[in-house]
C-alpha cells in the first residue's frame, strides 16, 4: 500500500515542484532591469539610473525629455498593471481587462467621455510639454516590451498588456479626479433633499455650516443654534427603528495633511514642508519615489504617479510643495426641463435636442455591451433616485481641467512663483502648501477654479441660469492665497482652510470636521527652531484629543450601571492612555460608541424627514448629510426626550443600549472585555492587491502586505481607518534635501517577485523615518542612444 501511494505521490510532488519552479523563474523574468545597458532610439544622450537598497531610483541625463523617457521605462517595468488599471478606470474600459464584473462601473465613468477629453488635452499641449509626454510614452512602451515575461497580473487574467498612448497619461490624471471629486454632484443632491425637507431653523441645527472644531487660517464665528423644540421635531413619535447599518464615520474617513514652518521658526532659517497624502491604500502604493537631474537644472526629488511624467509632490531644491484635497464644490447639478417625449431640454435659446452617443464597452472575449450616453450642453445626464432630471457639470469636463503645467514647478524659484504654477496646473483642485529656501511659506488652491456668479451652489441650478453659472477661469490674481502669515505656520487637513470671500470662491462640499487641523495647528504652535524630525513627529501624532470628552461622558454613563460588562468597560476607559494605539481598548470603546450614536441619531432623523416631508432620503444619505459631531454632542448635554427613539424612556437607557450592541462581540464568557476589543483588532488593516480577493489564501498572502495592528484613527494627524491611511510621508527643507525624511506603505515595485515589493513597509507602519534622497548605489544601469 505504501509503495502504491509512493508511486502516486512522488510524480505529483515532482509536478508541483516543477510548477512552482516555473512560476518562480517566470516571476523573476518579469521583474525590472537593475543592471547592464539598454539601447534606445528615443534618447539623445546617455541616461544613468541608479537604485539604492530600497529600489529608489535616481536618474541623471542631459535633457528633460531623456529623463521623462527613463521615468516611463521605470514606471512600466515596475508598475505597469497599476498604470493600466488607472487609465482603464477613468476611461470606463476595465471590463475589457477583468470581465463583466466591471460593466456597471464602466458605464458610470464612460458617461463622462474622459478618453475624448484626454485626447483633446494632448492636442492642447504646448510643444515643450508634448515633447516630454511623447518621450515618457516611448519609455513606457520600451520598458514594457523589454520585460522578458509580462507582469504577473496578466498571467492571472490570461491577457497581454496593451501599449501606452500619450492620452493615457491624462486618463491617469482623470483617475485622480475621480478619487478626489464628487463627479456626480451627489452631495449637492443629498443636501438639496435635506434642505427642502427640513425647516430652516431645524436645518441650521442638523447641518451646521461651521463646527466648533474648525481651525482655518482665517477667522470665523461659530454658534450652534439651540436644540429645536418638540413642536419642530419629535423623533420619539417615529415607530421605525434605525438599522444602524450605516457607519457615519466612513464619511469623515479622509485624512490628507500638509503643513509648513517658516524660516523664522526653523533651526536653519529655511522653511520646512511636510505632506502626507491619504488615500485608500493598496498594493502597490499610489506613489513611486524618484529623484532626477537633467543637465545643469536643479535636482528634483519627490513622488511621481505611475502613468505621468512628473513629480507630483516634492522639492526642486528651491521650493517644496505638497497637496491635500480641497473638498471645494467642483461639481454642480443643472435641473433640466424636458419636452413631452424627453428628447429635448429647455435652454435660454429654446429647446435643444439631447445628444445620444452609443459607447461600446468591450469584454475580454471580444463581445461588447452598448451603453447609451445622454449629453446636454452642460454635461452628461445621469441617473438619479429622486425623480428629477439633472445634467452634471463637473470641473473635469472643462478643457483646462488637465494639462502638464505642474512640470513648471521644476523651475519655480520661490513660493510666489510656485503659487502661480499651482493655480495654472491641470489637477483636481487641491490645497497647495509651499515652502522655499528663502524661508517663505504659502498656501493656495492648485487647479482650475471657475468664475461663478453669486447663486446657491448647494442646490440644483435652474436651466435659466446654467449658461452663466460657470463663465471662465478665475483670474490668477484673484485665487485664494495666503503667503507668509504672521504666525509663521500653515496647515491644511481637508477641512475649511479659509473663510469669507475666499471660501465663497472655493465653495463648500463634504469638508472634514476640523479636529485634525486643530491638532496640527496646535502642535505647530509649540515649535521653535524646528527641524525635520519635529515635523515628522506631528505626522505620527496619535493622541485622541478629540475623543477625550466622549470618553469622559461615556465613563459617567457606565458608572450609572452596576452591570459587570459596563464596569469592565469603564475600567478600560480609565486605564486608557488617551492614544489611538493598537493595544488600547479604550480607543475602541469611545470611537465605536461615538460613531454608532451619531449614525443612529441621523438615520432616525432621515426616517422622520421621509415620514413628515417625503424627503426621499436613503439611510446612507441621511447619515452623510452632516458630520453630526456638534449636533449630537449638544443633544447629549440637553438630553431632550423628543430626540429619543420611540418607546425609550431616557438618554441613559438609549446610550447604554447603543453601547451594548457595540461591545457584545467583544465580551468574554465572564462578561468582561476580551482582546477582541483592542483597537488593533477593531481597526486593523490589510493592504491588498486589487486581484488578491479572487485568489486562494496562499496566493493572497503572497500578494498582500502583512496585516498589521496599526495605530491611528480619524480626527487626529495619524489618520488610519480601515484601508485609508497615509500613502506617503514627506518632510523636506528646500536646498537641504539630504536632511529630508520619507516613508510609505508597501515598496517601490508592484511586482511580488521583486526585491522591492515590500521593503520599506515596516518603516511606515512603525513610524521610522527614512531618508528622502536615495541612500547610495546598489544597482545601476545605463540607457544609451542607439
Automatic annotation (TrEMBL):
<dbReference type="GO" id="GO:0016811">
    <property type="term" value="F:hydrolase activity, acting on carbon-nitrogen (but not peptide) bonds, in linear amides"/>
</dbReference>
<dbReference type="InterPro" id="IPR014395">
    <property type="entry name" value="Pen/GL7ACA/AHL_acylase"/>
</dbReference>
<dbReference type="GO" id="GO:0046872">
    <property type="term" value="F:metal ion binding"/>
</dbReference>
<feature type="active site" description="Nucleophile">
    <location>
        <position position="256"/>
    </location>
</feature>
<feature type="binding site">
    <location>
        <position position="332"/>
    </location>
    <ligand>
        <name>Ca(2+)</name>
    </ligand>
</feature>
<dbReference type="InterPro" id="IPR023343">
    <property type="entry name" value="Penicillin_amidase_dom1"/>
</dbReference>
<feature type="binding site">
    <location>
        <position position="184"/>
    </location>
    <ligand>
        <name>Ca(2+)</name>
    </ligand>
</feature>
<dbReference type="InterPro" id="IPR029055">
    <property type="entry name" value="Ntn_hydrolases_N"/>
</dbReference>
<comment type="similarity">
    <text>Belongs to the peptidase S45 family.</text>
</comment>
<keyword id="KW-0865">Zymogen</keyword>
<dbReference type="InterPro" id="IPR043146">
    <property type="entry name" value="Penicillin_amidase_N_B-knob"/>
</dbReference>
<dbReference type="Pfam" id="PF01804">
    <property type="entry name" value="Penicil_amidase"/>
</dbReference>
<keyword id="KW-0378">Hydrolase</keyword>
<keyword id="KW-0106">Calcium</keyword>
<comment type="subunit">
    <text>Heterodimer of an alpha subunit and a beta subunit processed from the same precursor.</text>
</comment>
<dbReference type="GO" id="GO:0017000">
    <property type="term" value="P:antibiotic biosynthetic process"/>
</dbReference>
<protein>
    <submittedName>
        <fullName>Penicillin amidase</fullName>
    </submittedName>
</protein>
<feature type="binding site">
    <location>
        <position position="329"/>
    </location>
    <ligand>
        <name>Ca(2+)</name>
    </ligand>
</feature>
<dbReference type="InterPro" id="IPR043147">
    <property type="entry name" value="Penicillin_amidase_A-knob"/>
</dbReference>
<keyword id="KW-0479">Metal-binding</keyword>
<dbReference type="InterPro" id="IPR002692">
    <property type="entry name" value="S45"/>
</dbReference>
